Amino acid sequence: MNEIDDRGRGRRSLLGLAGAAALGGWGVTGQALAQPTASGWPTRPVRIIVPFSAGGTTDILAREMAARFGERWKTSVVIENKGGAGGNLGTTLAVQAPADGYTLLCASVGPIAVSPSLVRRLPYNPLTDLVPIVLIADVCNVLVVHPSVPAGTAEEFIAHLKRNPGTMNYGSTGIGTAAHLTGALFCLRTGTTAQHVPYRGAEAVNDLITGRIQFMFATAPSIVGQIRAGKVRALAVTGDERSRAFPELPTLKEKGLASFDSGSWFGFFGPRGTPQPVVDAVNGAVNDAFKDPALQAKLVSNGADPQGGTPERFAQFVKAEIDKWRAVIQETGVQPE
């Protein structure tokens, strides 16, 4: 899995962590109150399609950005949650939308980087049917268990799984999502077995809290509140480095699972043919927002590392991610559907 190792290091060198960017507060600064683009866009409301249900990390980040967009562009920016098929349904709707700048897609690793290698008849090609605009955030996945699980560390949990093969269920936000494949990779690397239970999105966290499933790899922003409230127990994080939101949690790499860089990321895209002035305006709005220190502090405290960067670098990043997850799928043996 050297390819994945290289990609993990490349993400930081290519895009940089947002800590160097000095972000801004949740209030809109004077710098953020820019005018519409030279082309006059937007002259009417802009919609952002989120291909997952409300309450998940994609939805959370999209809404934070939408509020800033609305202030900046002086128009309504509406979130439309179109969950289903692991994010592929909403992504397809975005691909099919008019490329007039009034439909954006806030997508994550699953429908963009995983599905091309996992879905046999995927109705879109992310490399040709979408325009990468900007990477919003890089997010670690957190290994979380229901409090009834008798394990306080990753080592204890792995030992528990080995003593009880195939009896525990892990949830995900859908087949082919990073949560699904991270769970499959975890079981493979640890020599354990567990049953995968896919959900349409954030509902997986609800069933983890009630104990219907016993564990999952949840994106940090979607689970941080439940961890701090004691509703679930966090054991470790994915990635090569510890999370700034959970510095006390070890990485799975520290526990001997080398190359376990299977975090999530989130970014804005437009349908193929989206006008360049719109791409530049959305990219600029995100990068300007990331000059606000309070925004950085809030995102980091909730487990997200703000990113930003140019559309060209985001396009390179997406290509690398597709290659990375193709290798993960091959290693885990998860079959295309």
Polypeptide structure, described:
This protein is α/β, with parallel strands linked by helices and 337 residues long. The protein folds into two domains: 2-139 and 264-332, D-Maltodextrin-Binding Protein, domain 2, CATH 3.40.190; 141-237, Periplasmic binding protein-like II (D-Maltodextrin-Binding Protein, domain 2, 3-Layer(aba) Sandwich). It is built from eleven helices and eleven strands. The strands form two sheets. It has a six-stranded mixed beta sheet, with helices on both faces. 51% of the residues are buried. Residues 1-35 have low confidence and may be disordered.
Report how far apart the termini are: 24 Å
Mean pLDDT: 87
| Number of structural domains | 2
Order of helices and strands: HEHEHEHEEHEHEHEHEEHHEH
Q: Which assembly state applies to the chains in this document?
A: single chain
CATH A-level architecture of the largest domain = 3-Layer(aba) Sandwich
Secondary structure: helix percent:
40-55%
Overall structural class, as computed from helix and strand content, comes to: alpha/beta
**Structural Rg:** 19 Å
Biggest pleated-sheet summary:
6 strands, mixed
Widest sheet: strand order? 2-1-3-10-4-11
Name the shape in a single word.
globular
**Could you list the spans in which at least 5 consecutive residues all have pLDDT below 50?**
1-35
The CATH class of the largest domain: Alpha Beta
Measured by DSSP, the beta-strand proportion falls in: 15-25%
Tally of extended strands? 11
Key words describing this protein structure:
about 325 residues; alpha/beta; D-Maltodextrin-Binding Protein, domain 2; 6-stranded mixed beta sheet; 5-stranded mixed beta sheet
